[in-house]
Amino acid sequence: MKSFIFLFLAGFVLSSCSDQNAPQKTTGQQTETPAPTANIDKETIFAFELNTLKPGCDSQSGIVCAINDAVKCTINPHFSDCAANKDYMPSFIFMEDESLKRPTKQSYQISKLKPLPDGTIEVYTQSHCNGNWFGLCNGNIIFVMENKNGRWGVKDLYALAN
């Protein structure tokens, strides 16, 4: 019995002395994608209006394109790009009820990016709209971004009090 306890303690000591900088093995198939922050323009104001929505995205940033898609689908959940991008946005964006007071105009400007340890990124924006829509289109709106299948999408969004 004493030899078993000794072996256990020796194994514990050896494992606690391992090199902490050694590459760690990952389990599962999730791979971390570095946050593409270099091509995010914090000076640009992105603006959308119901009658002038255009399909596609002109930005070089997958994060900006994902936010743009979410805003377009907030304005019009039946817009042509929305069905193809539905898996990359929260399902509440597609809820339909007259009481939601969807905006017909919405704009945002990125103020900060905050990468999180789980691989997601919080994108802080200053947003303006002419509706209410859960209180998620006016003020300090944060888009939580995740990379799914090599593509950025909006995992969630929430508002911070001014």
Structure description:
The chain has three helices and five strands. It is an alpha+beta fold and 162 residues long. Strands 1-2-3-4-5 form a five-stranded antiparallel beta sheet, with helices on one face. The longest helix has 15 residues, at 2-16. The radius of gyration is 22 Å and the shape is globular.
Poorly predicted spans: 1-34
Q: What Rg, in angstroms, do the CA atoms define?
A: 22 Å
Largest sheet: 5 strands, antiparallel
Order of helices and strands, N to C? HEHHEEEE
Number of helices: 3
Distance between the termini: 64 Å
Strand content: 25-35%
Strands of the widest sheet, in order across it, are 1-2-3-4-5
Mean pLDDT: 81
Q: Which shape, going by the Cα principal axes?
A: globular
* SSE class: alpha+beta
Number of strands: 5
Tags for this entry?
alpha+beta; five-stranded antiparallel sheet; 3 helices; disordered N terminus
